[in-house]
């Protein structure tokens, strides 16, 4: 019997089966910002073959449960999730955003004449960089300290501080996701032209890595951490 069907929410599927995120990326289905909607909506929107997609997910899941499992973040303490986000995703962004910015400027200068799309790539990326850096700072200076303090004190004041900023953070997640999707459109799914250098290829590779890391980062927050905080505040 199949584990998943199109009535399941996308984020629920990824929570139960993290490797489904790779399949959703293959079909251009948003599992982070769009994780709170039924899979059926995304299937219709992307004009995906429902049977093919569900067969692929359920087959992969069957193999997954037969072997070793990835970390189940749904069962992790909030503090552990925060440490994962900080040490993996925030550290990655603080390190890589400046490097990608330099690369995007370089390929625009070298190849921009023959590849006018690079002007838009450069503008979109640097808008994303600015917004992400502001976003990381909010999480690191406001929300995460409040969550950690709440876990020590169980103070509703601390919990309220953590919850009050969620709507803003989710809006920023959506904005970042939209830019990443637009970058993929502008670059024709990061297709490498025949007349470019290795720096061009490296830039596109790093943009794809950035997309994958950011989607995983947003998934942990939108589909696991934030709903948990809201549930605590509602009790």
Tell me what you see in this structure:
This protein is an all-alpha fold. The protein is 75% helix and 0% strand. It is built from nine helices and no strands. The longest helix has 37 residues. The radius of gyration is 19 Å and the shape is globular.
List keywords for this structure.
235 residues, mainly alpha, 75% helix
Helix-strand layout with pairing:
Blueprint lengths: L9 H7 L3 H7 L12 H8 L3 H17 L11 H34 L5 H37 L2 H9 L1 H21 L11 H37 L1
How can the largest sheet be summarized?
A: none
Q: Can you give the helix content as a percent range?
A: over 70%
Strand content: under 5%
Distance between the termini: 36 Å
Give the overall pLDDT as a whole number: 92
Secondary structure: number of strands: 0
Overall geometry: globular
Structural class: mainly alpha
Series of H and E elements: HHHHHHHHH
Q: Cα-atom Rg, whole angstroms? A: 19 Å
Number of helices: 9
Low-confidence stretches: none
